[in-house]
Design goal:
about 260 residues; alpha+beta; about 30% strand; globular
Length: about 260
């Protein structure tokens, strides 16, 4: 088992909980619901991540099935994230309920001292930004993730920070530029002296230029100079190899399920 400074001996649960904390920290309002078992948001926008359900313990089968069936009847797409691996019985039930698309996500960690050097062309520059660059960050992030702008607007640098702040938690927003054009984004969230990496996005027309690697590595390097030793993130199977080249290792997996909605 790989070990990382500041993380428990089995770091997967700690890392995947960061995704839950991300949504709980940044989203509140009448379209959200949270308790000790789950968090959900239902914006009714046309993207599953904008209507995500995150369930901490999928062993509570009635809870998972009730939430899944409720969303299956909604007229918008849903992402259902389980922070632990489901049983084969639950997996089959979700498939029968219409959750036909599944993506396996990786919990990843890195000892920052082993981070690979950047080999991305020097035509890109990285700047840490504040609320004055909110619209630039939001527009770039929304384009990169192909998310509705109304949703991304709630997590940008001028979104008044976390709605449910955790003590000693710090947010850092970055934009990568090409000839003063914003082309990529990242957000680093510091919790318990661990760097959490989020919102790595690249505008579609600039993909294939190593920007994902650049913005991830350079963002971490800026903050690591303050003495942080470990970084974590959650990555798709497609993104896994990008982060492995930087120095991250997968320490566990968890599933995302997707439902197109009642009109899908």
């Amino acid at each position: 088992m790989l070990k990382f400074k500041g993380l428990p001996d089995d770091p997967a649960e700690f890392i995947v909980s960061g995704l839950d904390e991300f949504f709980r920290g940044l989203f509140s309002g009448s379209d959200t619901e949270r308790n000790d078992d789950y968090f959900q948001i239902a914006t009714a926008l046309s993207h599953p991540i904008a209507n995500i359900v995150i369930i901490r313990d999928p062993s509570n089968l009635p809870l998972v099935e009730n939430l899944a069936r409720e969303r299956a009847h909604a007229n918008f797409p849903t992402a259902l994230c389980l922070l632990q691996s489901p049983t084969s019985e639950l997996n089959a039930t979700l498939k029968q309920t219409g959750y036909l698309d599944t993506e396996i996500m990786h919990s990843m960690a890195m000892d920052i001292a082993t981070m690979a050097e950047s080999d991305t062309q020097s035509t890109f520059t990285l700047r840490e930004v504040d609320g004055s660059k909110h619209d630039e960050w939001v527009d770039t992030m929304a384009a990169g993730y192909e998310l509705p702008r109304e949703f991304v607007d709630r997590i940008g640098p001028d979104s008044n920070g976390p709605r449910n702040p955790v003590p000693n938690e710090h947010y850092h927003y970055f934009i990568a530029y090409h000839q003063n054009q914003p082309v990529a984004t990242s957000t680093l969230i510091i919790r318990q002296r661990i760097i959490g990496v989020y919102n790595i996005s690249t505008r579609p027309e600039f993909r294939g230029n190593g920007l994902g690697t650049f913005v991830t590595r350079e963002s971490i390097a800026r903050i690591a100079s303050k003495g942080y030793q470990t970084a974590i993130l959650q990555a798709s199977e497609m993104g896994r190899s990008i982060y492995e080249r930087i120095g991250f290792s997968s320490v566990g997996t968890f599933p995302f399920y997707f439902h197109s909605g009642a009109d899908g």
